[in-house]
Amino acid sequence: MTSTASRPATARMAPAGLAGTITVPGDKSISHRALMLSALAVGRSTVDGLLEGEDVLATAAAMRALGAAITREETGAGQETGAGQETGMPVVRWVIDGVGVGGLSEPADILDMGNSGTAARLLMGLLASHPLVAVMTGDASLRKRPMARVATPLEKMGARIITRGGGRLPATVVGARKPVPIRYRLPVPSAQVKSAILLAGLNTPGRTVVVEPEATRDHTERMLRAMGAVITVETEADGARVISLEGQPELAARDLTVPGDPSSAAFPVVAGLITPGSQITVRNVCLNPGRDGLFTTLRDMGADLTVEAARDVGGEPVGDLVARASRLTAVTVPAERAPSMIDEFPVLAAAAATARGTSRFEGLAELRVKESDRLQAVADGLALAGVVVRTGEDWMEIDGCDGPVPGGATPVVTHLDHRIAMAFLVLGLAAEGGMTVDDDRMIATSFPGFRGLMCGLGARIADAV
Ligand code: S3P
Fold first, then answer.
1. What is the pLDDT of residue 413?
2. Residues 6+ apart with CB under 8 A from 165
3. Given pLDDT bands bounded at 50, 70 and 90, which one contains residue 82?
4. Can you count the helices (H) and strands (E) in the chain?
5. What Enzyme Commission number does this protein have (predicted)?
6. Cα 437 from Cα 154, distance rounded (Å)
7. Does the beta carbon of 34 lie inside 6 Å of ligand 1?
8. What is the pLDDT of residues 352-392, one digit of tens each?
9. CB within 10 Å: which end of the chain, N or C, has fewer?
10. Which atom of ligand 1 is found nearest the CA of 32?
11. What is the CATH number of domain 28-256?
12. Regarding the domain delimited by 11-25+259-463, which CATH topology (the fold level of the hierarchy) does it fall under?
């Protein structure tokens, strides 16, 4: 998993702007779910465009340890596919032979989920309704993150989950022999918690119900429905979504194509907007309405950002994003928009730092429990860049520089957080002194090839030492 030896990297102003057409790796959320749900299907599934980042590879390893047969095949140089693979590149296909709902077997060793909160929490849901004992751990970042938010509802379903002090990993999951369905109202807006309960509900007789007061990404619901589960979504008078799953379905194996990750596309898109003279296209980006808050916000800031060739790929809305360098103005992001762009605040902060006026982001409490305390990490990094920033428990204000920020050589501390590293490297493209980060290795958890792709567009990113 992620190495503890850091490799500082620096990004500097691109003199002639960024230009080109790229595809970003497959969506991380969909990739985790594709492996987990295919492993529970009856028969053989194939997945094209799977994200081959360390987070998703941790899920693949865990599902293998639980009995699914998962292989990676290269089918030679191929035509461009809906998964965004370029002509001439080997076409990679993942093949999964499922064990059927309820068919997971006890793992022989500890399950190491690396840096991935999604892998850890969704897997805990799967384990909770199987009669087995499993021990889960993760890297130094993941071992700090809260697991009680999933352990509490899963214990109500009959599992026993013993966590390290304060609800952290490592944890031992003693799965329920006779799981019981629950109706659970989410106390935090989290697709991971919602999904963990629904995945536990798969091997639970009867109807499992999750009520989410604020809508979060719905990839689990879409994929379960496409595989034949009976899952309904109703909206209550106050806007809350009530998601009901009939337990113990037979999930049908299927051939799936994973679209590009909007949370990865966010970095080249913002880079193109804030680097003068740029025009870039990111093809094949997932535009699920639970994920597109950043793009709406950038347009509110005056960004020249358009969608071309809107289409459907594997039950998800997809399009090509075209970003042209734009003079951005400050924006206020209301709390209710936060769940649809929760991973994008670090890179939005980079955009706001170059905008004209003071931006304000609200509803940021969840940022404090991501791969790092992102609210603090962003504030500290912006201060190093010479940008004036104010924060509260769940909000942030940024005084934009109306053009390039000062920047500088002191490395931003990334705390094993891929999105902090990428956001500040992107800011380096609009920083007079460039920007340096203390470590960029963990970028491989979600965006393998980030540096090469950005340099291919014209960015200058290099080792700092
Ligand atoms: C994810 C949900 C979000 C997001 C994470 C991926 C998912 O986390 O930050 O990167 O795939 O369900 P929360 O559910 O904790 O908000």
1. 97
2. none
3. very low
4. 12, 23
5. 2.5.1.19
6. 38
7. no
8. 999 999 999 999 999 999 999 999 999 999 999 999 999 99
9. C
10. 11
11. 3.65.10.10
12. UDP-n-acetylglucosamine1-carboxyvinyl-transferase; Chain (3.65.10)
